[in-house]
Amino acid sequence: MRKYIVLLSIVLTTSVLAYITTYLEAIGLVGLDTRYLAKLFLTLAYNPLARELTVLSPEAVTSIVWDFRGIDTFYETVVFYMAIIAALAIYRGVGYPSIRSEKGLSIIVKVVTKLLIPINIAIAVSVAAHGHLTPGGGFQAGAALAVISVLLAVVFSASSFARVGVSLSKAIALRTVGLLAIAAVVFVPVVFNALTGVQAYLMQNYVKVDSEFAFPTHIQSQLISGTLIWFNLAEFLAVSFGFFVVFMLLSLREDVVREQLGEEHGH
Amino acid sequence: MDTSFIERFLIVLTLYNLLVTAAISLYGIVARPSITKKIISLTILGDSLNVLAILIGFRVFSVPPVLLKLDANPDELLNLAYSAVDPLPQALVLTAIVIGLAVNLFLIFLALQVYRLYGTLDSRKIKELRG
């Protein structure tokens, strides 16, 4: 009974507060105009007229993520990377066991999952590769691909990772490759500057006021928006295999983990 | 184009509900003894704050912040800038979600390890344990 009174009072309080706020027009939340910063991002994301300021990507969110605020995103990727290193540190010494005869779910679920996995891969790759054109990008594509690791563990049992050729060390290596690829794209302008003497800046995407350096924006008239597609694909690799690592570790059987972690973990 | 009272009321109500959800999840993090429930509360807190950020960037009668044609003239660009939602909160939330997921997974690993070492996830009991 007490629970319902608390619930009712919360609902009533919020409703009354919302009514009063709306009546007094105390919050200008529903204004029709966009903020100045947003206008700037929206007009500059794809604007061939503002040659020195544009990103040449019609998708404003990806333009912000990988160009306007690109260094933010790079460090956020590092945070992501470190969180998984921390998780791996807890599981240090735990290896993936060799194949056991574990069975998994019923044949119907298995067949449906087998049909779903190629579709899942196709969606993930297309979300990553179209990140500069449509809503999406490396983060979302990585999360979409990581679903496969959960499906494999739940439907086919944890031993199926070895069967499809994904091992723990391979996944760790691939996510490192992803992060290194991001770093490589960041440093390309600097290397270009050192080799040719043309002015170029770290993480530069398209021409700037005093620099004519630009990543190729088109491949055979297909818009790739300079660095954005490479960042998205590299991030896709880093995120998806980062999640693969943690979901593989989480899907390990408890007795196997305890056995490998040693005596002091026994309860 | 003016919004009706009921539309504004619903948006403000959503805002208050998000704040209440955040407050309840903060209570869950602080007051619940179970580490599992603390982690669940933390994810709810993160999600409600993410939705709050998206709501701050929201504009009524708006379109997604994506330019639909590549040969747009300056007028069409300005039209997009005046009618689209704010893309900056979306960009920040997008990364926040993935990083939140990674951090939550790390916390789950920690909780698992705590359970293996102490045999309980009750923070009151863990506090009393020595060694």
Describe the structure.
The complex is a heterodimer of chains A (267) and B (131). Chain A is built from ten helices and two strands, in the order ααααααααββαα. Helix content of chain A is 64%, strand content 1%. In chain A, 36% of the residues are buried. Chain A has two domains: 32 residues; 201 residues, no CATH class. By secondary structure, chain A is mainly alpha-helical. By secondary structure, chain B is an all-alpha fold. Chain B is 74% helix and 0% strand. Chain B contains five helices and no strands. At the A-B interface, helix 1, helix 2, helix 3, helix 4 and helix 6 of A face helix 1, helix 3 and helix 4 of B.
Quick check: average pLDDT of chain B?
87
Count every helix of chain A, treating DSSP H or I runs of 4 or more residues as helices. 10
Oligomer: heterodimer
Whole-number count of domains of chain B: 1
- Please report the first level of CATH classification, the CATH class of chain B: Mainly Alpha
Helix tally of chain B equals: 5
Brief rundown of the structure:
Chain A is an all-alpha fold and 267 residues long.
